[in-house]
Amino acid sequence: MKILILIYQWLIAAPIFVVAxxxxxxxxxxxxxxxxxxxxxxxxxxxxxxxxxxxxxxNIKVVGRENIxxxxxxxxxxxxxxxxxxxxxxxxxxHNFKWLMKKSLEKIFMVGPACKRAHHIFVDDSNIxxxxxxxxxxxxxxxxxxxxxxxxEGSRSWxxxxxxxxxxxxxxxxxxxxxxxxxxxxxxFKRMPRFSYNITPGQITLTIHKPIYPGxxxxxxxxxxxxxxxxIESALPDCDKGISVGHRIDxx
Length: 252
What we know:
Layout: H1 2-35, H2 37-40, H3 43-55, E1 58-63, E2 75-78, H4 84-92, E3 97-102, H5 111-117, E4 121-123, H6 128-143, E5 147-150, H7 168-176, E6 180-186, H8 188-191, E7 202-208, H9 221-234, H10 247-251
Parallel strand pairs: 1-7, 2-5, 2-6, 3-4, 3-5
Antiparallel strand pairs: 6-7
Helix pairs in contact: 1-3, 1-5, 3-4, 7-9
Keywords: Acyltransferase, Transferase
Protein name: 1-acyl-sn-glycerol-3-phosphate acyltransferase
């Protein structure tokens, strides 16, 4: 059975996925340039993400959707177990948003330029001036009533457990005084870990936690970071709780 799944994935699903990815990037780029990014920067990738999950026989279960309002701007922070995290959130969060993503992703053929034209925000943390520019871009985006999605670990887990969070996402939340919504992604690592390109069909559960609202003085960054990590970890199975043993590799 595994051999049949691999044959299907590489000879049928993979070519369809590649073509769909480049077509989505093209449609997103042209639509965003001609008609604006609010619709064209979100819905083509939203459809692409759903297609990708179905193509690979990955089912997405969403818990807690009632905790968010589609007309409210949030900063969503999620754990990052694997590549399917992107498709799960893009396809099933059902909330228009922009990604806060690594600047290195800007170089991906067709996809990087499409993300740039759709006004996703690329993070350059090489110096203070670059960080200020990132904050300015995020501020312009959020003025339009948009939300942001951030993986505060900065990279995918090596073993399903969470890598220590970076403070950038929470500094943005404190800067803009927007409610922060933790999201737990469970099952993505089992579907496709970062050290493999083979996919195991099955289920991914997306748990949307209750928003954390700023107080009168805004957020305490350290407390916010700890609360988000606690909420995210609460919806993970015991085997995926704790700190990833591979986080030292990401620090190198």
